[in-house]
Write a sequence for this structure.
């Protein structure tokens, strides 16, 4: 399923929606298409529009200020590009740098993407105790960056440069 980025009327990223929801917003004149998929079109009996990749709401929506991006396992995998923080292979699990049994929590700075083999090998130890240094340090993405990263690297590369400067 393709995701469509929704921008506020002020061009700030708000969320992602399904392609069908984006088309409905455009057809109801609640949003305008800022960027479309080059070869994909949505056709109906009386409609033929380009499939939206980025839409902008016509009216400004006030959003409460969000200081941090919410943590999630999927978010950690996306942040790390589905690459293991220990060996660089494809990651399918999330590992706690400081294990939960030692007081480590589910936070952006304490979790990294990991392949199942390395996650099992590290077990209930810190990377130093296991002799497994991290290839890259975990970081906390901004809420806007976390939302842009959910689009995926392929779709992110097709977005305008002004929109992806901080997420790349």
């Amino acid at each position: 399923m393709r995701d469509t980025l929704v921008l506020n009327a002020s061009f700030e990223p708000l969320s992602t929606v399904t392609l069908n929801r984006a088309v409905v917003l455009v057809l109801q004149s609640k949003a305008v298409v800022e960027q479309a998929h080059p070869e994909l079109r949505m056709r109906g009996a009386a409609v033929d529009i380009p499939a939206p990749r980025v839409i902008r709401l016509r009216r400004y929506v006030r959003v409460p200020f969000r200081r941090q991006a919410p943590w999630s396992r999927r978010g950690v995998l996306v942040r790390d590009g589905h690459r293991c923080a220990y060996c660089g292979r494809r990651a399918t699990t999330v590992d706690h740098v400081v294990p939960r049994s030692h007081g480590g929590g589910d936070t952006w700075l304490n979790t990294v993407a990991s392949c199942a083999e390395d996650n099992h090998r590290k077990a209930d130890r810190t990377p130093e105790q296991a002799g497994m240094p991290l290839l890259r340090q975990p970081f906390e993405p901004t809420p806007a960056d976390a939302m842009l990263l959910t689009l995926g690297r392929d779709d992110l590369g097709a977005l305008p440069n002004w929109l992806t400067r901080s997420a790349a």
Summary: The beta strands are 3-7, 13-18, 31-43, 48-57, 93-96, 111-114.
